[in-house]
Specification:
single chain, 7-stranded antiparallel beta sheet, 4-stranded antiparallel beta sheet, 20 strands, about 25% strand
Length: about 450
Amino acid sequence: MTAAVLAAQMTAGGDDSSRFDPIESWYPVAYIEDLSQIAPTPFTLIDRDLVIWWDVLAQAWRAFDDRCPHRLARLSEGRIAEDGLLECPYHGWAFTGEGTCDRIPQQLPDAQAETSRRACVKSLPTIVEQGLLFIYAGTPARAEQTSVPLMPVPMVDGKPTDGWIVLNTFRDLPYDAATLLENVLDPSHLPYTHHNSVGKRSNAGPVELEVISSDKSGLIGAWQEGPRKGTLGRQDTTFIAPCLMWHELKSQQFGETITVVYATPTRKGECRIFARFPFKFASKIPAFVISATPQWYSHISNNAILEDDQIFLHHQERYLEQSGGSESFSQSFYLPTKADRFVFEYRQWLNNYQADPFPGQTFKPALATEQLLDRYHSHTEHCHSCSTAHRNLKTAKQAIVIVALIAWISTMIFALAGGENTLLTAFISIGFVVVGSIGWTICDKLQIKLERGDRMPARNRK
């Protein structure tokens, strides 16, 4: 990533060179594959409740304020009507893709209340790039002038090209976007926090990070030695303000790998992470294995990795607030080594450019551990692959019980009827029950993994 490319992002954040306005930027809100074209979807972006829906007439995604101008009912509780308009659930007012009101069923035939500006819904600019839906949170007129933050991988129609494979996941996290970015910009925590998941304590060592450039648009950095005590080569880091970062690594062992993270702020103490993992392998075998693995099964592992640090990060940002907040981070944090160079630079950027999307707000009381480990509401129900798998697993469990029950009842009837080979039939029936029990148990464990995480992180298991 060059300084010239970063400079292209300068329109993000507004025109004031001394301040980065977090509203004036594009943010990813969902993978296109996870959005429904037949029902509206709610989403909160920087404390603003929105409704996302598919405008079949324009063949485009729309984002409106999630409030009907009539009586402020949530439009996301409504429907996409037969004529393709977004219909309010309360009184049936319907809106076009531009946000204008098309009909008010309660008015007389010759009335035209729908033509009033007060009958319109505020619409936000949207764009689809690299398989993600982005929404512009600020002044609509600035949207076209503002670059969309994209990862450095060639893609056509949301699919990677030129030999790349991209794994995707997301989750609603119980901590700030700033806490997330601080965390992922820090490569030195990997061997310890993620020991036995994606790291090993034995790979830990001195980490000398270097900031090559830093300004309003973000930062570029490097780790000359790189991970695993230098065995993989140099790692380059890029942060594009306000929500995108990636680590890029090229090695003979793994080919080219990039760890990409988007941090979309939703509310104070909450954000949605979009994690993308582009790979370009020298061998076709790893690519085949990755492609053959069901997405929902990969997401189980992804969620476990996020939970490695989810609990202590949720509390860490509250401790920082209690000790003075981000403005005094250099007094609250003790940062004696260059391993924290990117963390320091990011926190400095956040303060120097007044880029906090929730200024003056404080954190809510800490959540219980069980809530922090919730997977169903933070991921599964919003993910097309995982929600489908969850439904299928529940159905499979029910089917297994029914089949085992039928087999058992059939055996009893056959035995009572005095049929031949009663013993053989009994063994077959018992076999059905045993195999069914094993199948039910496997399905149940997978269902649980789609619903909640394990309290014991991988690093603490023996």
